[in-house]
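Known limitations

Structure tokens in this collection are predictions and should be treated as such. Users comparing against experimental data should check residue numbering before alignment. To illustrate the layout, the record for Gfo/Idh/MocA family oxidoreductase is reproduced below. The input appears on top and the generated tokens appear beneath it.
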Amino acid sequence: MSTDRVIRWGIVGPGRIADSVAPDFAYVEGAELVAVASRVQERAQAFADKHGVARAYGGYGGILGDDEVDALYIATPHPQHEAVALAALAAGKAVLVEKAFTATVAGAERVIAAARRERVFAMEAMWTRFQPAVVKIRELVADGAIGEVRQVQADLGVDRPYDPKDRLFDPAQGGGAMLDLGVYVVSIAQHFLGNPTSVAVSGSLAPTGVDVEAGLLLGYDDGRAAALLVSLRNPTPGRARLHGTKGWIEIPPRFHHPKAFTLHRFGQEPETFDLPPLGVGYSHELIEVNDCLRAGETESSVMPLDDTLAVQRVLNEASEKLGVFHHEDARVAV
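Generated tokens:
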């Protein structure tokens, strides 16, 4: 693909997240949002009218067969990600899949296997890793600014009134705190500590059977650990800390899309870095996909598929220890 070619994007699933992502295309050089698809034509058309998108499809077949779409941002409920991603990859379209990547480990494995078999780009839309503040944190950690990272703390909680009809409380739609919020805290721990060797969890369930709160302790063979909290029943600051042998880094609320952070080196004054994102912040993951496509890459080195799979394994193990067993939606028509 030419290095100066415009990457033409489509969105599948014009919900709340897609509504926030769409305006950020304006900050991405060489990207154009040209199509949107929903199971309901009227919903797709309303989204297209709001965001100035040229083509709106009812059902997913139209956008999958659109030769003028290079990449798809998949923002359907979690259990539908696998079916849509597999169909998109088979059609030769790059995919940016909203987190959590899938509802199950098996689903993630199938999508990853298909992407590698077809040699088509796929990435989880973990925008946190591409925020300018997190990019700088990664550089500082790599340079040894806080020594060896030994512990990670992170929390993310919201006060969501219980409503059995709400997607977050609906098992069929992959509801629960783990897949929606846990993915952030687990991903930042995995990013800076690697893959854990043990997962301990405590939490509670809603009357519908989904998890509404959880505390996770990720363990590592050498004694490193991550203490993580998520909740749908009470708000938390949304803060993260990376603790190293020579200092620590404080990421203020909300850590998953920070505008700044503070570096604490032992024996030195704290140093604050202000690094706001472009637009809302989704722009940076879109830029990554565009850059990878132009370079002919099929995976991102910042958000590789192996990391996505490792995080998915933690999420599902923790959910199942709480008695929550997620399933992919086999009824999706693509």
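For this record: The mean pLDDT is 97. DSSP finds nine helices and 14 strands in the chain. Please report discrepancies through the issue tracker.
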